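Appendix B. Chain record.
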Amino acid sequence: MALKISLKMRLTFWYSAIVVLSLSLFGVYMYLSVSNELHANLDASLANVAMSLDNIIKENTIEGIRQKTEKRTKGTQDKFALFREDEKRRFVGPLRPGSEKKESDDDKGMVWSAIYQHILLEPKNYFLQIADTNNHIVWRSENLKSDSLPVIMYYSLKMQVTSDSVLVKGSSSFTIPPSIITLHEDVDSAFSYVDHEGEELRLFVKRTNNAVISIGYTSSVIENQLRQLFFALLVAFPLILLVSIAGGFFLAKISLRPVDEITQTANDITAKHLSKRLPEMTINDELGRLTRTLNEMIERLENSFIQIRQFTSDASHELKTPLTILRGELEIALHSQKSTEEYEGVLISALEEVQRLSNVVETLLELSRADTGQVRMNFEESDLSKLLYDIVEDSIILAESKDIKIIPKIEKELIIDFDSARIHQAILNVIDNAIKYTHNGGEISIELKKGKIFSEIIVTDNGMGMEEEELEHIFDRFYRIDKARSSNVQGFGLGLSIVNWIVEAHRGRIEIKSKLNEGTVFTIFLLNNHGLFV
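Structure tokens predicted for this chain:
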């Protein structure tokens, strides 16, 4: 049994599923992007700080540093003099300008001001250490206390850490740190993670011609920021999802409201009330096009029902008339004494009515089979001109009783693909119809000419003609033109219906031109090569 879930709920569900998927992908992408950006910026900051410190070391090897260290032995140059002096006022990480103790302009801030310009995060979380090229520690930030950071000891073919704990306890005196990093001989710097008092540090070690610089930063700062971002996304996610679900349900309800109106109206449309139409949409969207299509379908259904009712009424009338005549004649024959000749006349009249009934039934059955596609055409390449000459001979015989002149205008040797028997039936029906509605002594012309795509069969008479509104119904079954003008015309009103079906089966068409009391022109168009269009 199928689940009874409304379209509105299904649309809301799929909309919500798409929103959930989109938010999840966005959240993962945003978290990973921010994480990569923070770590990349931190690595760039550590590398820039190392470069700045190396520049300070280089600058202190010139005359300026010699002037700052006049207290030392004359003629000696100590490129780490500034750091040795700074060591006397150890600080916890680089300080922001203005926050340090008041000192001389020359002494304040050379180290940390050079560092500060590259610091993107909290300064107090930086751990700094500078060693000489022999790996003797010259200076380190106070927050390292008695610990030391790894240095680059020598070169090897691969990077490795030489002790279980990269950052180990050292002594108060500056000696070679027990923790070293070995690198390939072409590499002078390395990034790594180390542990400091249970806290992870992001470490950058760079070996230059002047010193070995080690810089670390607390990884927990970045992790805290990422954790805050994660919880922010975790809180925003359900709120956005809730709003999206409510919005999706509201939009689905608004969008499907016209469908409910269409459904209610469609329920009121029955076989007895086909005149009703669905409400038209002012906007040319999917629902608007659907409504117009359904209204057009309902209109076709209404016309079909009207035709069916008219057909039933006309068929009943056509069948009732000969049955009534037959019944009356038989009753008279039974209740009265007649001679043999009179009985013979009654039987002949009854046979004519039976034949008429048979013709009506056979024609209706043929049209019914044609409607259901049970009748197939036998297309063969034949001479249409010869067929028209044969039809003209038959027409002359039919027209003799009304002294109507048949005028042929037939192009010779016109070879096309067609069903000879059916085209003979169709053209003869048209000519028979023209004879019935043409006055005594009139004229009927039968013309055949070949065009580029179609061959044209034109039947023209100078009979009573038809009014404009009658042309629209001329091919309707059992349709007869004004009975006051055709009361003496015999027929059932099915002949032209047969003609229209045969021509359409040949992928052709019929055109009719007529003027009242002037005559009618029937033009039948047949394809020259039917196989090109099959």
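Further analysis of this model is presented in Appendix C.
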